[in-house]
Amino acid sequence: MKTLIVFAHTFWKDSKVNRVLLESIKDINNLKIHNLSTSYNDGKIDINKELALLKEADKIIFQFPLFWFSAPSLLKEWQDRVLSAILYGEKELLKGKFFQVITTLGGAEQSYDGHHGATLEELLKPIYYSFEYLGCKSVKSYAIFNANINTLDLNTYKKVLGID
C-alpha cells in the first residue's frame, strides 16, 4: 500500500514533536511525506502536483498539530483548492482510497472529551466528511496528547501508519 502523508504546521520552523515523528519515517518504502509548510511557504498550491500525488496513493494521511481546535490554515487552503478540483474535475480520484488524521496536541486527552464543547472526533469530523464525500474510506484518527519529544512513542506511531 502506498501511503501519502500530507503534513502542515503553522510554526514548522519551531516544530519539535512533528519533526521527530517525520524524521523517524523518512526512509520507509511506499511512504511519501509531503510537507506543505516547506513546499508552499508562499501559500500558492500547485493543484496538478497535488492531484498527481493523490493518484499514486492508496492511503492519505493528514498529519498536523491541532491549533485552536482546528487544522493549520495551509492545510485548510489545500482542502479548499485540491478537493474542489477533484469535485469539479476528477470525481473518482479518491474513490476507494483510505483516509486518516494523525494529530499532535499540547493538551491532555481529557481536554478533548467534550467538556469544552466538542470532542476531538467532533473537531475532526469536517475533515473526515470531506474525504468521505469524495469516496474515501475513513480510518480512525490517531492523536498524540501532551505531545513532547521526551515521551513520544515512535513504535505506536509507526504501527498506526502500518509500518511497524
3D structure, described in words:
With 164 residues, the chain is an alpha/beta fold. It contains six helices and six strands, in the order E-H-E-H-H-E-H-E-H-E-E-H. The protein has helices at residues 17-23, 36-39, 47-56, 73-87, 120-133, 154-161, and strands at residues 3-7, 31-35, 59-65, 98-104, 137-138, 142-144. Strands 1, 2, 3, 4, 5 and 6 form a six-stranded parallel β-sheet that branches. The protein is globular and about 40 Å long. The protein starts with a strand and ends with a helix. The model has no long low-confidence stretch (mean pLDDT 94).
List keywords for this structure.
single chain, 164 residues, alpha/beta, 6 strands, 18% strand
